[in-house]
Amino acid sequence: MEVIVPFAAQRPKTRLRDVLAPEERRSFAEAMLADVLIALRGTDFDPHVLATEPLDLEVGTTVDDRRLTTAVNAALAAAEPSPEAPVGVVMADLGLATPDALSLLDPDGKADLLLTPGRGGGTNALVTKHPGFRVDYHGASYLDHLQSARALGATVREVDSYRLSTDIDERQDLVELLLHSDGAARDWLVDAGFDLDIDEGRLGVVREG
Amino acid sequence: MEVIVPFAAQRPKTRLRDVLAPEERRSFAEAMLADVLIALRGTDFDPHVLATEPLDLEVGTTVDDRRLTTAVNAALAAAEPSPEAPVGVVMADLGLATPDALSLLDPDGKADLLLTPGRGGGTNALVTKHPGFRVDYHGASYLDHLQSARALGATVREVDSYRLSTDIDERQDLVELLLHSDGAARDWLVDAGFDLDIDEGRLGVVREG
Fold first, then answer.
1. Stated pTM of the model
2. Cβ of A128 under 8 Å from any chain B Cβ?
3. Both ends of chain A: CA-CA distance in Å?
4. Taking CB atoms and an 8 Å limit, are B15 and A201 in contact across chains?
5. Has the ipTM of the complex gone over 0.90?
């Protein structure tokens, strides 16, 4: 199955601006992309990066500098998903992704659409077999995608994975990466001076230096 | 498999104090407990509530007014888990739990211990077959539990579920309940005036007065 991995190379991870400088955000985002691609290499899927500018990667890359929703929909229209040729879309900031977790996106089932919720109403990963399905990543995308599926008469299966539901967008998300990853993005954070902040309730992060 | 569901009846959900009054927090916590017990009823497991005071429930309840870690460890010691008689512990605030998600805690495997991470370093659900394993819910419990397992020579399998990893502790967690549940706790929130707050980035919640 072809899996599209969109990557916003310009100004990525703006919601980490309170803890990372612009060049750091870019470098950190590239480390997460590398982790996602390594995890995908451990699956049966065939990843393809959709980036806003050319990147130096070992996997095939299409450059499209339009906004995320527009670029992904153009790629879906070009791929013409069908039950015989399903297409996946996996976000590049799933820093906890593993081959096992990604393999939950198994298209061998009855559902026309697999949706993996992201925290806060997002859609972190999906698989479509329906040629007419289009994404809308603005706002409450999970609800919008459910509604689009209903409008198309497409059946939906929710993919239940903590690892795939954890997109790394905000300071608090860095805790999950420090705790549950051993990839390049975690190493990047440790090298940048981040550590767990053990207090009451949930853990936080601190940055030294 | 026996599954212990600990419930703190006194002063539950203190980290929701900015959005819920004390009596509301108790009532909301009881709605989540009811949802967890209904979801467990859809599994092969045998739930047993461990509460800090007597409750009016249809499932067996043990009253132990000590702190969470102490009470759960006393229950584990009494249950004497073994490979033939594994014992589960599932938090009462897993408002997104479904029978399918809970069934991932399937003890039929080689691992001595199944651990389900909670956001922020917690342990939202576990299964133990090892008579010597004890919990420590204070601080970074997931790391502590991994360390205890290592010390015992017990093998660990991580259970990867967004639904089980989402404990409802803080204001932002209410978003997940509003989006992905149709249980009593979600109804409670809607009746109390909560609604999704659709803005940029992740969704939030608002409460109307």
1. 0.96
2. no
3. 44
4. yes
5. yes
